Amino acid sequence: MNNKQGLREGYTTGTCAAGSAKGAALGLINGFIPDHVEINTPIGRAVKLKLQKKQLGDNYAECCVQKDAGDDPDVTNNAFIFCRIQRISANDQSLDIKKGNTYSNNKQQITVVGGKGVGVVTKPGLQVEVGLSAINPVPMQMIQTAVLDVIGTKECNIKVTISVPDGERIAKRTFNNRLGICGGISIIGTTGFVRPMSEDAIKTSLKCELNVANALGHNRVVLVPGNLAETATKKWFGFAKEQVVLMSNFVGYMLNAAHSHGFKEIIIAGHPGKLAKLIRGDFNTHSSNSKPANDIIVNIIEKRLTRNSVIEKIKESTTVEGIIQEVEKAKELNIFNNIAEMVREAASAFLNDKQEIGVVLFDMQKKIIGYSMKDETRRIFCKTYISL
Questions:
Q1: What's the pTM?
Q2: Is the pLDDT of residue 197 over 80?
Q3: Which of 141, 236, 248, 361 has its CA 20 to 30 A from that of 135?
């Protein structure tokens, strides 16, 4: 199905796992795995999925669904989501069973676990408890429902193993490592469908990092646009790695999210080419929504410098980094303390002055060029005395 932009929707890993689970259950119960299965999704739309790599053996059945992400650039696209279903004894206490989620009634016990390529949760704050396989609640329910649709009221005790052979490699291109999900991908999805280029999916992943920081008891977080600011923050400050949270271009969204978590202080750290846009009121800093920050920075410098030769040079610069270099040559780098303070004021006003905010600015060489933050925070977390 296409969305309003004409882009084709795909299926979540949760939908694929549920489809392969239904196929494997049919194999276990009927001794035959069909070529296709139909499952219901959480939003009430039924989907038909192709089953591949089918196997039948003594007391087990296995098959997979190949992930189709539609027109979304999903890193799990084309991954094979396997399910193996096997009969087990009622007292099976193997370690992988303990990492699972069990549905049981008087006659049935269905335990769903993650196998090879499905991550294990190692930090609190996510939808899945620490120590369990990273299969989110909605996909877990979909898998159990798909199996129950097949076995009906038959008395049985079965183990359902979801695996993704290439999952560990794929996971390196996701947020999982930052979130403390080790060894593979997560089985996720709330609707059953992948919506192409969904900002909501990105925001959800970013917000999960705040959940982890909050669950670990941290009262401060540092929001960074990307890798440069993240590595610079870790170089200069002694924050725990879970306190340094990616916000991408969604500054306003992440400020609101961090504030709602009740953190004592939110620090924004990054290059002024990105963060100075907040002074203009641009809290989504993507280039499609916000023009470059050169004019903002030039205007601020013009009001604070009287040396025309320096002003002419910064006006000639095509990049904010070039402006920084000219200001540094002129030994006027403390101007970026003023810019940091203006960014801080803009962020504070965005949250109606109800949140303690700090700002740190780095250049492209990851040096601190400006800051506006509490002395207490600087004293506790700064590895090297800041003097600009």
A1: 0.79
A2: no
A3: 248
